[in-house]
């Protein structure tokens, strides 16, 4: 295995790890912010 | 979770995450799915034909990354679930950057057949680390925007870094392509097309996303996606034109792929469920039948390639054989010429000794000298045969044409050979058609040589009985025929078929203890043919005699 292979492997593992972490954060823990208006209701688009 | 899909009128029943009423208009599906199909089709086809080509592998990674990107983006259009939106939107940057990185590799492999150096690869990895670290954080997506009904996330500052990364790679490809273009000789056109194709594709893609981010108008970004099929078309052209890819196979694959894509695209236009089912079945059938077609075309091409390779090898072997044959003829010619001079001396002195020019020889010495004379005569004939073969093969046999009567020539030979026949207890007869003047235009010396050879053979291969020489003509075709018929050892059908070949002798020739080179009839046939004539042989079978016939076109 060359240095080049190691670098590519590191990149692939990094991306997989990052996606896993995102899954854990958002899908499992629902750890993200939801921005709402003061009245709690979204503005409806005008037709 | 404070989000209420019903308040905004969102469709919460999406099929396969990508089909829902939230996606307004078929344009979104076309802009996402068409490039996926085109790119996957091209990459898959190329991989099928060149599984070990690194450029193709890089293109496949680009195709898969784009597929992941495009499907994630479609989910963002279709879903009403904030978790889906946040998850797929967070990951989209990885797929986006992978498209850029794999296209960079593709261009490197396509142009130089090498990957970027490990230092360059390390630079890419280092530049990528912030994205790995912060993709799941609010630097990537600040949060879900429920202040309106657009089902969108709010992007963070990491996106700016991603766009800079992307444009840097596009610039890298451009500079690399330009440098290689300057260095390249015959591949300049190929390099410039591939480089500009890739840069155009990536920049259009980036601009679509950047405009989407700045203007918060994601519909504009859809147009950038159409640069992918253009790039695919360009690559297809380059590959067929410059990589000696089999056009016939590719055409079959393109035809099948095109039909399947067209049928499948109907799924997105016709909303009626029954039509969708029929369309799906048709698409599957077209794919299966197309696969069979492609396999048969591929098999045919493989067979044709094998035949071409064999034909090439055969052609080369033939060339080598011709050269060897030429060398052998030259060797035989030189050797024969070298042998002829001393043989003439041997024959001359043996003859003089037998004639008593050096006094009467003792009985035993006379026998010995007779044998020398006989052997040298045979050897001289053999050398003459070799020389004739050499002349025929090199095209140096000279013919002096004149008009003469074959009947006279044949009669003269019969008269000359009769004493020899009597010595061996054989009767030599001559029959000439009185109505035939039998005049031909040929080389009289060569004609005599041919008839002499036929009569010599008849004498050699006949132990008892007779030899008949018969000359006659036929009006249709206008030819004079000389038949030499003997009551000798005859020939089998197998021998008849090969008797005029080089070094061929009758299978039963050795039974009568006759020595010969097997070249006499070959030379006679070639000479007869060169003078517009033919020689043929017939025999009822072994030990039943044979007839050799010389024919020449007559003048009158």
Walk me through this protein's architecture.
The complex is a heterodimer of chains A (47) and B (556). Chain A has 47 residues and is mainly α. Chain A has one helix at 3-28; one strand at residues 34-35. In chain B, helix 2 (27-49) runs parallel beside helix 9 (227-242) and helix 7 (188-215) packs antiparallel against helix 9. In chain B, the strands form three sheets. Chain B has a five-stranded mixed β-sheet with strand order 4-6-7-9-8, with helices on one face. A two-stranded antiparallel ribbon of chain B has the order 1-2. Chain B has a two-stranded antiparallel ribbon with strand order 3-5. Chain B has helices at residues 5-8, 27-49, 54-78, 82-112, 118-134, 158-183, 188-215, 221-225, 227-242, 247-269, 273-355, 363-394, 406-424, 444-460, 493-498, 520-530; strands at 141-145, 152-155, 401-405, 426-432, 439-443, 465-474, 479-486, 534-538, 546-553. The model of chain B has no long low-confidence stretch (mean pLDDT 85). At the A-B interface, helix 1 and strand 1 of A face helix 4, helix 5 and strand 1 of B. Strand 1 (34-35) of chain A pairs parallel with strand 1 (141-145) of chain B, so a sheet runs across the interface.
Attribute tags:
A: 47 residues, mainly alpha, 1 helix, B: 556 residues, alpha+beta, five-stranded mixed β-sheet, 16 helices, elongated
What's a quick, concise take on this entry?
Chain A is mainly α and 47 residues long.
Question: Helix and strand layout, with pairings?
Answer:
The complex is a heterodimer of chains A (47) and B (556).
Chain A: H1 3-28, E1 34-35
Chain B: H1 5-8, H2 27-49, H3 54-78, H4 82-112, H5 118-134, E1 141-145, E2 152-155, H6 158-183, H7 188-215, H8 221-225, H9 227-242, H10 247-269, H11 273-355, H12 363-394, E3 401-405, H13 406-424, E4 426-432, E5 439-443, H14 444-460, E6 465-474, E7 479-486, H15 493-498, H16 520-530, E8 534-538, E9 546-553
Parallel strand pairs in B: 4-6
Antiparallel strand pairs in B: 1-2, 3-5, 6-7, 7-9, 8-9
Helix pairs in contact in B: 2-3, 2-9, 2-10, 3-4, 4-6, 4-7, 6-7, 7-9, 10-11, 11-12, 12-16, 13-14, 14-16
């Amino acid at each position: 295995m060359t240095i080049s292979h190691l670098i590519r492997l590191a990149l692939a593992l990094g991306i997989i790890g990052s996606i896993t972490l995102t899954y854990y954060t958002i899908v499992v823990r629902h750890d993200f912010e939801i921005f709402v208006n003061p009245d709690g209701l979204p503005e409806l688009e005008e037709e | 979770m404070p989000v209420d899909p019903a308040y905004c009128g969102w469709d919460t029943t999406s099929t396969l995450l990508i089909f829902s009423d939230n996606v307004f208009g078929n344009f979104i599906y076309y802009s996402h799915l068409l490039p996926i199909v085109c790119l996957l089709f091209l990459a898959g086809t190329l991989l099928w034909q060149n599984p070990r080509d690194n450029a193709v592998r890089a293109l496949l990674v680009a195709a898969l990354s784009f597929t992941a990107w495009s499907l994630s983006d479609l989910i963002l259009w279709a879903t009403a679930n904030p978790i889906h939106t946040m998850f797929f939107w967070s990951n989209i940057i990885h797929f986006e950057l992978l498209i850029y990185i794999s296209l960079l590799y593709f261009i490197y492999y396509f142009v130089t057949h090498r990957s970027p150096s490990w230092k360059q690869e390390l630079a890419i990895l280092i530049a990528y680390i912030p994205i790995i670290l912060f993709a799941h954080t609010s630097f990537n997506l600040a949060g879900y925007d429920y202040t309106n009904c657009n089902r969108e996330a709010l992007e963070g500052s990491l996106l700016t870094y991603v766009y800079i990364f992307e444009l840097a790679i596009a610039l890298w490809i451009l500079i690399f392509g330009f440098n290689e273009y300057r260095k390249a000789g015959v591949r300049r056109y190929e390099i410039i097309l591939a480089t500009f194709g890739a840069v155009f594709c990536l920049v259009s893609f980036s601009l679509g996303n950047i405009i989407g981010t700045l203007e918060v108008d994601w519909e504009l970004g859809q147009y950038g996606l159409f640069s992918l099929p253009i790039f695919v078309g360009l690559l297809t052209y380059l590959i067929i034109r410059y990589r000696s890819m089999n056009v016939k196979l590719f055409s079959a694959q393109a035809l099948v792929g095109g039909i399947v894509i067209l049928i499948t695209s109907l799924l997105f236009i016709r909303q009626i469920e029954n039509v969708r089912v029929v369309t799906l079945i048709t698409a599957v059938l077209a794919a299966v039948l197309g696969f069979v077609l492609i396999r048969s075309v591929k098999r045919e091409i493989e067979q044709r390639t094998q035949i071409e390779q064999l034909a090439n090898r055969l052609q080369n072997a033939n060339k080598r054989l011709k050269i060897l044959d030429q060398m052998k003829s030259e060797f035989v010619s030189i050797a024969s010429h070298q042998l002829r001079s001393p043989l003439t001396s041997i024959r001359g002195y043996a003859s003089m000794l037998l004639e008593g020019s050096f006094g009467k020889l003792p009985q035993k010495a006379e026998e010995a000298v007779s044998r020398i004379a006989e052997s040298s005569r045979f050897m001289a004939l053999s050398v003459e045969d070799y020389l004739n073969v050499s002349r025929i093969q090199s095209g140096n046999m000279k013919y002096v044409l004149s008009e003469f009567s074959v009947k006279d020539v044949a009669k003269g030979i019969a008269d000359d050979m009769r004493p020899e026949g009597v010595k061996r207890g054989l009767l030599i007869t001559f029959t000439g058609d009185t109505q035939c003047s039998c005049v031909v235009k040929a080389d009289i010396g060569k004609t005599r040589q041919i008839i002499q050879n036929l009569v010599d053979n008849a004498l050699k291969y006949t132990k008892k009985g007779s030899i008949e020489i018969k000359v006659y003509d036929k009006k249709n075709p206008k030819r004079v025929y000389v038949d030499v018929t003997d009551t000798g050892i005859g020939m089998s059908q197998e021998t008849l078929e090969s008797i005029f070949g080089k070094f061929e002798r009758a299978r039963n020739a050795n039974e009568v203890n006759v020595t010969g080179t097997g070249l006499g009839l070959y030379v006679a046939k070639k000479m007869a043919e060169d003078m517009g004539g033919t020689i043929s042989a017939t025999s009822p079978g072994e030990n039943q005699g044979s007839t050799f016939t010389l024919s020449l076109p007559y003048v009158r």
